[in-house]
Every structure is written in structure tokens, then in C-alpha cells.
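Entry 14. Structure prediction run on the chain below.
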Amino acid sequence: MNSIVDEIKKLKIEKNAIILAHYYQNSEIQDIADYVGDSYYLSKVGVDSDADVIVFCGVKFMAESAKILSPKKTVLLPNEEALCSMAVMARADEIEKMKKEYPNAKVLCYVNSSTEVKAISDVCCTSSSAMNICRNIQSDEIIFVPDKNLGSYIQEKVPEKRIILWNGFCCIHNNIIPEDVIKVKEEYGENIEVLIHPECTKEVRELGDFVGSTGQIIEYASNSDKKEFIVVTDVGILHELRKRNPTKRFYPLNMVCNNMKITTIGDVYNCLVSLSNEIYIDEGVRIKAENALRKMHELV
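Output returned:
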């Protein structure tokens, strides 16, 4: 009897499908994926692919971003319960009220947000592109949604702009406190390098030897002469880090996004069999959201 992985491979051919997986997915999901990366990179892969079906193993906003950029393709989210707590912290109607309070401000929207929020934003950004976009956007005032920690990090790096923060955050990154990092560093030695995602609080970021996005953390560790690292982001990133750097050691904190881990091999198989859990977006909203995503490339 063929394994479920073999069946998935057959279904990909039958359906002309591509499987995309975020770095935070479980290792077995990353291993069956055609591409592994951060959310916007994967959406771009979807655009450039000749596949008719995109199976996006991540959380809902990621699959929505893929649909925004590839409206004629079928985009599937294997598990409909895979939501991002940060994304649901920002509602479009509430942001519209803030825009009225700050009429001269532009809205810079982290890609970790809903389609509706993207649609009322001037431009989107990723954690790696946020600083450049903030510098290049034609406004001295910027409403940054939804992550207050990434927004405060941008403010540190771009002091010439006024960043108006939305009170949202990633529960996994925001819950880490300095003592968590210090404890692990004391266990493994002072010479170990600390790699931290900017969704962490300022107090935690200050303990980092390097602060960057998931992709930037992977590149930094891969290019570093150091052999040991504390990794302050979701543990899912360790799979790619260890694949690329088999001779190096990576020590995680207890950072696990359960929504990112909820997708199973069975979910991927089932959605491919029946093309279920398809992402649908109102075309008018999609076009507005696409403008914000496209603008990101102009300003980066």
C-alpha cells in the first residue's frame, strides 16, 4: 500500500498543484513541500509557478496573500482553523477610525494581517522590508499595524519618522521575557550568539547579537563563523537551520505557534483529494489589497 506521501505526490501531478510551507510548519510538512520560506516569498513563488492549485501550509492570512496575488489560481488552506492571533487583532473599521485621527499619516501594514486590513492600507511590508519601506514612504507620520513590537523596532531604526503603533502582537514572541533568553545563554555559555525576531519586545531584542526576519536569521546563521546559536523565534525554523548547517548547534526557547503546527499530512492529502478549503476573496477588496502588496516592491 502506498504511503500518504506517495499519494500526495500523485495528487500533485493530477491536479497540477504546488505545496508551499512556512518555516514554522512541522518538519514533515516542510519535507513534503515544493518550497519552504516566509509568507511573502511563498506567495511570490505561487505567482511565478505554472501550477493551477496552490496548497498553502501556513495560516489563513498567508493563503489569502497568495490568492490576492494569484486570483485565477485555486488556493487551498489545508486546515481552516489555522489562524494568526496577530492578524485578528486589527480590524479594518477600527483602523479607519485611527486614519481619521491622523489624517496626514500613511498606513503601513505588516503582511501578517487580513485582506480587509491590507485593502485599506497604503502599502504592505514584511519584517525584512519594513525599515526600507518606512524610510521611502512619502509621509513623516506612519500608522503601523498590527504588530507594536515590529513597529517599535522600526521606530528605533528610522527615528526621523513618527510611527503610530497599533496595539497588536504575536503571542508567541511577545510572551518571551529577557530572563528566558538569559537563562539559556547562561546554560550554553557567553560566547553563543543570540538570534532574535523583531516581533519580540524591545527588552528581549536588546539581548540579541542579530535581530531579523525568519529568512534573515537563517541566512545570518548559515554565513556566520560561529557554531552555536540561541534562536528566539518559533521552533519550526530549526528544521531549515539544521538542514543547511548540519555541523552547527541551535538552541531554541519554548516558542511554539500551535496554529502553525495544526496542519497535518492528512489535511494536505484531504484538501488535494477534494480541492476543499478554498480561499475566496471579494474582487473589489482583492484589488485594493493587491495594490498595497504591489506597492511594497516599489518602495523597498
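Residues 87-169 form a domain with the Rossmann fold fold (CATH 3.40.50.10800).
Filed with the rest of this week's runs.
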